[in-house]
Each structure stands twice: as C-alpha cells, then as structure tokens.
From TrEMBL:
Protein name (Swiss-Prot/TrEMBL): DUF1761 domain-containing protein
Transmembrane segments: 40-61, 73-94, 106-130
Keyword tags: Membrane, Transmembrane, Transmembrane helix
Domain of life from the UniProt record: Bacteria
Amino acid sequence: MAWLITLGLAAAVAVAQTWLKLVSREPQPGKKHALTIDDAVFWIDWTVTAVVALCGALIGASLDHKPIAASTVAVALGAIFLGMTVMPFGVRMICYNGSGVIRGWLYVVCADAFGLIVLMSSVAAGVEIYA
C-alpha cells in the first residue's frame, strides 16, 4: 500500500509543480503557455525527497532504538548513492545534448522513471524500518 501512496504523492507533486510553473510564467507572444520540456523533469525532486525521507526514517528508528536489518540499510544506501552520484552524470551524458538541451520526451520519461525507482526504494526501506 505504501508504494501506491508514494506513486500518488509523486504524481500530485508533479501536477502541482507543473501548475505553479504554468500560472507563474508569462508566455511569449503568440504562445498559450510558457512550459518547456524541462518542466517535466521531476527525477531531481523525487531523488532529493527519497534522500530526505530515508534519512528521516533512519534517524527516527535510531531515536526509537529500533533494530534495522543490514540488508535494508544496504539497499537504501545503494539507491541513494546511485541517485545522488551516478544518476546525475548519467542523465547529463545520455539525456542532454552538448548544448544542455534535453534530447526528447523519451529521455524525460526514462530519467523520471529512474528517479521514481530511487524514491520507491527509499519508501520500501522506510516501511521495512517501521514494520
């Protein structure tokens, strides 16, 4: 059930961010909105959310003196390591061209999917910590 709530919250945050970007920017003359393809890149937000949530869960478990399986910590830290070190460089090398423009919608979807995997891994570890 936690994965479904996480997906719902991630989608709600994405919709809210897109809405705020839509209404807060003045469109260029002749355009209906000022949104760009880069406004659909959410993996960064989801990865940072995962790190903060997992750190909070680990600190809370420590304060409650709860035992945490080493495998749970290893998987969570592995996901965070990949999301905070490997993924940014991978996204830059694969999803963006040499002038810093994203290559297309497929690349946005792939980057967001990997960010969602990091978030889901963090949530799964947090749920296991408090189970």
